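Deliverable D4.2, example record:
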Amino acid sequence: MTHQRVVVGLSGGVDSAVTAHLLKQQGYEVVGIFMKNWEDDDDSEYCSSNIDFVDAAAVADVLGIEIEHVNFASDYKDRVFAEFVREYQAGRTPNPDILCNAEIKFKSFLDHAMRLGAEKIATGHYARVRRNETTGRHELLKGLDESKDQSYFLHRLNQAQLSKTLFPIGELHKTEVRRIAQEIGLPNAKKKDSTGICFIGERPFREFLNRYIAKEPGPIKDPSGRTIGRHVGLSFYTLGQRQGLGIGGIKAKGAQRGGGEHTPWFVARKDMANNILWVVQGHDHPWLLSPHLQANDASWCAGVAPEPGTYAAKTRYRQSDAACTLNDPTLSAFALDFPEAQWAVTPGQSAVLYDGDVCLGGGVIDTASAAP
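Output generated by the structure prediction step:
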C-alpha cells in the first residue's frame, strides 16, 4: 500500500468521482480540488459551475476526502480565453479544451497541487501514461475505450507533466465507470456527461461570440464567383459548417457536380483580406478535401520531434485515425501528407500524431491544401 498524496481534479462529473474512488482504493491519500475557471456570467442558465461544485462536494463527502474550491478564472482568461478570441478574430477555429489542459489543468492546477504536498495529480480523462523502460520517457497513450479516448485533448502535455499525472479510468470503459459509480452509491452516478466549454455552455455559439467580436458582414460566394447570400462576419463560421448559412434552396450554377437544389452547402474557404465567405455544394466537393497540411506551434510529448515517416493522425477530435506521412518535423512545426484526402481540415484546430496507441504530440493547423 502507498500513502502518497494525490490531488484529484473533481469536476462534479462521474469520471473524476470514480477516479478519486479508485485511487483511494489503491491506498493513496486523496485530496479533491474543484477548479473554477470562469466567472463572467456564472449565475447564468448556461454555466453550471455552482451546481457542479455541489455535486463534487457531495462526492467528496461520500468518499470521505477533503475538497478545496480553487479559482483559476484569471489564469484562464489570460492564457486560454484571450487566445480563443484572438484566433476567432483571425478567422481560425481554436480548440480551447486543448489549451485549457496545457495551461490550467496541467500547469496552474499541477503547481497548486505540488504546493499542497502532492506527489501526483489525477484527472478523469480517458487516457493512459506509461514509462518506457527503454528510453526512460513517459508516454501518453490512448484510453482503452476508443469511443471515449481523450488523448487528442492532452497531446500538449510534456515529460514533466506526464511524470506527475495519473489517469486511473484510462484502463476502463465508460460503462464500467458508470457501474462502479452506482455500486459505491455516488450521488452523480447517472449525471450526464458535460458537453462544450463552461464559458459557452449550451448557449448559441454565435450569440456568445457576439459579445467579444465585432460583426463585419460581407458576401457569400460560390465557386463560380456568384454572390448567393450575405454572411454576418467571417469569425462566426468554420470550415465544413453546414447549418446557419441561410442559403438553402439555391442551386449551384449549372448544377455542377450533381449539386441539385436540395444538395447542402458547406463553408469551404474564408477570404479574410476581402471579407468573402466561399461555399460549395456537396459534402465531397474538392475544395473540402485536403491531401496535405502544415502545422505550427508543435508540442511533442517526448520533448523531441519524431522521426519522419508513416504514422496516423487526427485533424479533429471525433475522427478515426488517418494514415499519413510526417515530413520536415522540427520542435515547432511539421507537415503531413495523407494518401486519402482529409475532409474540412481547419486552421486553428489541432493535428495530432499517433504511433499505434502512443500519442506523439501535435500542432496547430496553419494551412491545408485543397483542389484549386
